[in-house]
Write a structure and sequence with these properties.
Radius of gyration: 22 Å
Low-confidence stretches: 436-445
CATH architecture: Orthogonal Bundle
Shape: globular
Main location: membrane
Mean pLDDT: 82
Organism: Jejubacter calystegiae
CATH superfamily: Sodium:dicarboxylate symporter
Membrane topology: Multi-pass membrane protein
Number of helices: 19
Subcellular location: Membrane
Helix content: over 70%
Structural class: mainly alpha
CATH class: Mainly Alpha
Family: Belongs to the dicarboxylate/amino acid:cation symporter (DAACS) (TC 2.A.23) family.
Order of helices and strands: HHHHHHHHHHHHHHHHHHH
């Protein structure tokens, strides 16, 4: 009976959100309301429903997980057609390589800044790994082996796709990057066809434009469901996590969240330095950040990340490449802050000053490498931390200690990952502003 009552309440809240959507064109407003209502449901489930909450969440997951699945479903055609359409509007393929390299460069720079921010935060708070020596680690030898089994040349080679259909199915950890690389190759070939065979090029261009209209309409339909998906996901977050599960690790959690907050401030400064309004920026990207926080999925956030960048006036080629690459590399939260906080905790216990220039010269490139390495092995922050600690010859047991509370930290990390990819787009757009003309885009509203 109680479970049925919660389903009715969820339906009523969906009607409320629907009416708000009808009166307002702002997706951010609807998402904020959904966030609040989902939190209320989750808290009541946590403190009132008891064992019934499991049944309720299973039904809520039909909406929450279903929405995530739909976003993943439209992400691949969106990436392919949007990048291809943006290239179709370019006059030559020469600038395409410059766009890609600039975006990757911005991502690697930002992840090193995030690593330095995490290191300074943990060091300032005085966190020390010795206090966690008595906590049993859940790290396995197989986890460690994954980080040492792949070299840098192998990693770079793994990014290059060999079977498009394999990547379209998402079978590889780097499937998104593989799809982007294939699309860039297809785009360069398209520009060559338009130059060498104008008649066929016109037909191809018309077909691509028509396909883009179709895909964008499909994506708009899915993104319109964002508030309902966020409400269901938020209810699950507040009803599932138990404070007692990670009380002893609150210092580490607090350091990670504080470092994430500091990195968001740095992102805001970057937005201001590029001539944009930080308030307008965060108001526009709010739906993408909120969804990333509750879903803990950078890949599922790609359509929203592309959408909000285009609303900010970022050219389609830059928006699509930055959002797509950012789902697998250069992640500010998972590959930057998370391993750096662990490094700051371990370094004093083995007699190393984490703020020495000599050590930073080794740490920051290791973080940049680790941010790419995550794409090669998957697993988010855990494997990024293993890569960085292994590269520095640090003990890796501490990584296993924090696996239990990683989902709690991962919410903020994922939001920062997605924002880092979008900031890379903003930075790249600024750096390439005079070299890349912004084509007219069909934005996702």
């Amino acid at each position: 009976m109680l479970a049925f009552l919660y389903l009715i309440v969820f339906f009523i809240f969906c009607v409320v959100i629907f009416k708000v959507d009808r009166k307002s064109t702002s997706l951010s407003k609807s998402v904020f309301i959904a966030l609040f209502l989902g939190s209320l449901i989750g808290l009541s489930l946590h403190f009132i429903a008891g064992d019934t909450s499991k049944t309720v969440i299973e039904w809520y997951s039909v909406v929450g997980n279903g929405y995530i699945n739909l976003l993943k479903l439209v992400a691949v055609p969106l990436i392919f057609i949007s990048v291809l359409s943006a290239i179709n509007k370019l006059e030559s393929g020469i600038g395409l390589g410059r766009i890609s390299l600039t975006i990757v460069g911005c991502m690697l720079l930002l992840v090193m800044v995030a690593g330095l921010t995490g290191l300074l935060t943990a060091h300032t708070l005085g966190l020390n790994a010795e206090s966690f020596n008595d906590i049993q680690t859940s790290l396995t030898q197989n986890d460690v082996a994954k980080t040492t089994a792949i070299s840098l040349p192998e990693l770079i080679t793994s990014l290059i796709p060999t079977n498009l259909f394999l990547d379209l199915s998402g079978a590889r950890n780097v499937s998104v990057i593989g799809i982007v690389i294939f699309t860039l190759l297809a785009g360069v070939a398209l520009l060559a066809v338009k130059k060498e065979a104008p008649e066929e090029g016109v037909k191809l261009s018309a077909g691509i434009n028509a396909l883009q209209v179709w895909v964008m309409k499909m994506v708009r339909i899915v993104i319109a469901l964002t508030p309902y998906g966020v409400m269901a996901l938020m209810a699950k977050v507040f009803s599932t996590y138990r404070i007692e599960q990670f009380t002893s690790l609150l210092g580490f959690i607090g350091a990670c969240y504080l470092a994430v907050l500091m990195m968001f401030v740095i992102h805001a400064l970057i937005v201001a330095l590029t001539g944009n309004n930080p308030v307008h920026y965060f108001k526009t990207v709010w739906p993408a950040l909120t969804f990333a926080f509750v879903s803990r999925s950078s890949a599922a956030s790609i359509p929203l990340a592309i959408s909000v960048q285009e609303k900010l006036g970022i050219p389609g080629a830059i928006a699509n490449i930055s959002a797509s690459f950012g789902s697998s590399m250069g992640q500010n939260g998972c590959a930057g802050i998370y391993p750096a906080v662990m490094v700051a905790m371990i370094a004093p216990t083995i007699g190393i000053d984490p703020l020495s220039l000599h050590f930073l010269a080794a740490l920051l490139p290791a973080i940049a490498l680790g941010s790419i390495g995550v794409a090669g092995v998957g697993g988010g922050g855990t494997f990024a931390a293993l890569i960085v600690l292994s590269t520095l010859n640090f003990p890796v047991a501490l990584v296993g200690v924090f696996i239990a509370i990683e989902p709690v930290v991962d919410m903020a990390r994922t939001a920062l990952n997605v924002n880092g990819s979008m900031i890379s787009g903003v930075l790249a757009n600024r750096l390439l502003k005079e070299k890349v003309s912004a084509p007219e885009q069909q934005t996702i509203s």
